[in-house]
Amino acid sequence: xxxxxNSLVIISIFFTFxxxxxxxxxxxxVSQDEYANRIHGFVTLRYLGELIFPEFTNSVLGNxxxxxxxxxxxxxxxxxxxxxxxxxxxxxxxVKDKYNQFLLRHYFxxxxxxxxxxxxxxxxLVITENKYVSLIGFLFLALTPRIFANSFYNNIDIFFLSIVxxxxxxxxxxxxxxxxxNLLLCSLFTALxxxxxxxxxxxxxxxxxxxxxxxxxENKNYGKKIYYIFLYFFSSLIFIYLFWPFLWTNPINNFxxxxxxxxxxxxxxxxxxxGKFYLSSSVPKYYTLQWIFITTPILFIIFFLIGLxxxxxxxxxxxxxxxxxxxxxxxxxFVILGHVFVIIFFQPNLYxxxxxxxxxxxxxxxxxxxxxxxxxxxxxxxxxxxxFISIIKILYLLNWNFDNHPNQQxxxxxxxDKDFNRKFDMDYWALSNKEQLNKILxxxxxxxxxxxxxxxxKLFYSLFSLKEDERKRFKIVNSIDKADYVITNYYxxxxxxxxxxxLLNKFLSYNDITVDDVIISSLxxxxxxNNISK
Length: 534
Description:
single chain, alpha/beta, 5-stranded mixed sheet, two-stranded antiparallel sheet, 21 helices
């Protein structure tokens, strides 16, 4: 790959992106779910430690109150190996302070995501056989603002997206070169998908279906394909068992417990959607589809719709004989179609935009690339224009990400209208709190600063974005009148908090954080309390 100039340019782009992102990891705050995920990892490590190294585990545990991993544990249905992996490094390197513990996780999260981006590029290269088209696809995914921001701190949805990409790559490798190595690698990553989020079992069945489709399309030996399906299914189940400790004592029963619990997930919160408040259990059927539509760059949506048109057209025209490349595109089409069916007909509990379905985004980008490439193939004269508008869009996204750093998680396209704050949830994980806390530290030199959090989110988690000596200067108070400062990210559903918004008129508006000129977070200073000690 290093023997030609084009490859060196592409590698340079990868390298520059990677190094730049390593320098900005610390700019992002701690999200609301990370604390619980860290605890979940240590629950698993306690289980493994007591099983393998009981004396060492007891010495490490000391007086720490870490729950047992059993059927009574509330987090039993969640995948645990990734959180446990973080915990192992935390123990080995004796990482004590919460700031460093979560920063370490952010580095891991981004590095794994970046590795998956390389696999995404390789996947596109396998399908398109064109380095520049594949590079465009890589940049489409890498620079999508919401995905970009989440890649640093979202260790549930973005890690899931990452292993879906890697698993899909090895599945396509198996399709092109049917050997045991590729099959076992695909089985391994399929298992990691299922073990991280049980809904990933969909991929186990889709992959099995496509192994059979390969045989039908190429008139190959059906007996051999059935053997491959059996081997893939069996080896995936073995890996699922190995990487999910909750299954070890009673694999079938515990798997059914986890599946039933996650399929009837009853965590109910409110969502602000189209200017109305909905319970997460009763959002409209089009909730996820609209969120995708208003938060994906519009050019990508246009290319995706063109790709969808060609998928349907070619499926009807050539249903008796598909080309290898078309089957690979068809695979990603079914990844999307199957999950759209689940969303519409089973109506799972949905909230926080469409983050639970971020793993569909690589498939969306691949179909967008199919649309882009199909236009070029149909009319080669369009190539300069398509490349031009793609590059312009990439440059626009680069500029947008710079201008709105580090709050790219609040990206909306123009379909959402300019007043998206009046219609949709914005910074639902309160990532902007870190910037407001740093602002207070910059202007207020007192040893004790009392702050009030006007939000459904917990400021407790955001404080872990700061070093220990900085954290200790803050005291969270439970009354707006007692506060030196009030922070709000406008993620408010409680009637009491809605009334408290009107009380802010006696406070001085000190700092607003904006995205596309829309305020997503505000910092207020209490004018009735003592002046700041400089």
